[in-house]
Specification:
Elements lengths: L4 E9 L5 H11 L3 E10 L10 E3 L2 H13 L7 E4 L5 H17 L4 E4 L4 E2 L2 E2 L5 H12 L2 E2 L3 H8 L6 H13 L4 E7 L7 E10 L2 E10 L8 H8 L2
Parallel strand pairs: 1-2, 1-4, 4-5, 5-8, 8-9
Antiparallel strand pairs: 2-3, 6-7, 9-10, 10-11
Helix pairs in contact: 1-7, 2-3, 3-4, 5-6
The structure holds adenosine-5'-diphosphate (ADP) and 4'-deoxy-4'-aminopyridoxal-5'-phosphate.
The site of 4'-deoxy-4'-aminopyridoxal-5'-phosphate has 15 residues, from strand 1, strand 2 and helix 7.
Enzyme class: transferase
GO biological process, one term: pyridoxal 5'-phosphate salvage
GO molecular function, one term: pyridoxal kinase activity
Length: 230
């Protein structure tokens, strides 16, 4: 296998671990060469009372990729994207995927379609149709949580049968591998379920896994999870 080289477009926080701060080091430990574009530079994650910092614009993202391109250093085996806060930035990510695939048609695009959790949307609602219609079809692997899976498929998920129905819809949109990062479905609130499904050469492989939930609430675990599905 060629040397794995990832472009990771995610948040940077000065204090704490979300986005690139959660993903880059674990990927390096897994043996990936990682190039990082910080989509925001914030003092801390958005769960704090205040957040200060800067947001990268789509023009600035395009400029960074152009710089790589002009130096002929934009060959990647993998692209990873996480939280995106605006329609224009998400549209620019589509362009980046297409550009990187011109350079490497086998590029694996791992997309965490971060939109919300437990029924709460934390991005503008205009991002939903873009993920659904443009980003999911471009992605090789997506890692939505249960709520994001509902948003992407217009299905209300109440049980495991609904989960696999939704996964099937996502495959039909063109995404090869779907990994549902966390789902709480049964009566037992101490259990978190993970579901994964891959369609390749007309063969379908599925797996599900239950894990014991700890009482703590973590931030950055979704980003760490997405970096670990490579
Ligand atoms: N309370 C928890 N107890 C144990 N593992 C957790 C907990 N919260 C998150 N995780 C781990 O982090 C992964 C991603 O979950 P989560 O952070 O909820 O994803 P997302 O940000 O996509 O909603 C889970 O698959 C699980 O492995
Ligand atoms: C700036 C930023 N980036 C990414 C995330 C994603 O964190 P998680 O992995 O817990 O979904 C957060 C959490 N709100 C955040 O504030």
């Amino acid at each position: 296998m060629e040397d794995p080289r990832v472009l990771s477009i995610q948040s940077h926080v000065v204090s704490g671990y979300v986005g690139n701060k959660s993903a880059v080091f674990p990927l390096q430990l897994l043996g990936f060469e990682v190039d990082a574009i910080n989509s925001v530079q914030f003092s801390n994650h958005t769960g704090y009372n205040t957040v200060k910092g800067q947001i990268l614009t789509e023009k600035e993202l395009a400029e960074l990729v152009q710089g790589l391109s002009e130096n002929n250093i934009e060959y990647y085996t993998h692209l990873l994207t996480g939280y995106v806060g605006s329609v224009s930035f998400l549209n620019q990510i589509s362009s980046v995927v297409k550009h990187l695939r011109e350079k490497n048609p086998n590029l694996i695009y791992v997309c965490d379609p971060v939109m919300g959790d437990s029924g709460k949307l934390y991005v503008p609602k205009e991002l939903i149709p873009i993920y659904k219609n443009f980003i999911v079809p471009l992605a090789t692997i997506i890692t939505p949580n249960l709520f994001e899976t509902e948003l992407l498929t217009d299905i209300t998920i109440k049980n495991v049968v609904d989960v696999w129905k939704a996964v099937d819809i996502l495959h039909k949109k063109g995404c090869e591998t779907v990994v549902i990062s966390s789902a709480e479905l049964g009566d037992d609130s101490s259990i978190l379920s993970i579901f994964a499904s891959t369609v390749k050469d007309k063969s379908l492989k599925k797996l599900s896994m239950d894990i014991k939930k700890t009482a703590n609430k973590f931030t950055g675990t979704g980003d760490l999870f997405a970096s670990s599905v490579f």
